[in-house]
Amino acid sequence: MSLRQIAAVAVLALASFTSAATDDDKKGVQKPAEQAVQGSDTVAGCFSSLADMTLLTTDNFNSQGYCAPRCRNKGKPVGATYLKACYCGTKLPNSQSLLNDTKCNEPCPGYDPEACGGLNAYTVYNTGVQVNVAEADPDPKTSTTSAATSTTSTSQTSATNTPTTPAESQTPSDDDSGSKTSVVGIAVGVVVGVIAAAAIGGGAFFYLRKKRNSELEEEHRRNAAVNAFISGGKPPRSSGGVSIADSRMDPVMNRRMSDGSIADNQDYSRRILRVTNA
């Protein structure tokens, strides 16, 4: 080997050592997702959900190399780490909860260059029990929010794209018909009430007027009778046909003689033949 080749190999070795040393200096780095391998644990990604996984143990030396083999020994195809906690399960978290790798940035207690989760995040592994692992159902909160957003968008799109025909826009609703019927009924009731009140008022007016006329007519008859009695004439007959004339007020007998007067104890209705000396 020539001196030049030896120098080149030395430079490459130094570069590799420097790169390895630099990588070891970084702490809490999440590995990218890897292809699953039968019998060996690989990183599946950084997730915000643990799906159906349960806590297996907590340990001060927790890491991928500590947690994933223990889940594999339990026959669990999925494992996850969060600081000192090790979880195992049968399903991978749903892809809707997959996060960016930078969200998992907490150094593992047993090997700090690796990440063991992060803030509301978990580092998930395929333990190698089986290559193809089913996903858990979507998180109810996430699916509900997505469904609500989809429904709102669909409703807005339908409202925007569906034209309203003139016939539909001008067709009165049942509420409008009911309101118009109520208004008509109220108007008819008011008119009938006014007519009835007017009829009652008119009847009362004519009754009082007739009664007043009768009273004035009766009063007129009484006054006429009194005046006739005072003046010596015959009073008018009343409606009952009863005469109030006094028989002593006969006009013939009113002519008194010059030497006599009317005595109250005499009956002047009869004419008396008087004999005088001529």
From TrEMBL:
**Would the keyword Transmembrane be found if you checked this record's keyword annotation?**
yes
Provide this UniProt record's keywords sorted from A to Z.
Membrane, Signal, Transmembrane, Transmembrane helix
Q: Does the keyword Signal apply?
A: yes
Signal sequence region: 1-20
Superkingdom field: Eukaryota
The annotated topology with respect to the bilayer is:
Single-pass membrane protein
Give the stretches traversing the membrane.
183-208
Query: What residue stretches are annotated with the WSC domain?
Result: 40-128
Compositional bias, Low complexity, is annotated for 142-167
Instruction: Output this protein's name.
Output: WSC domain-containing protein
Which source organism does the UniProt entry give? Xylaria multiplex
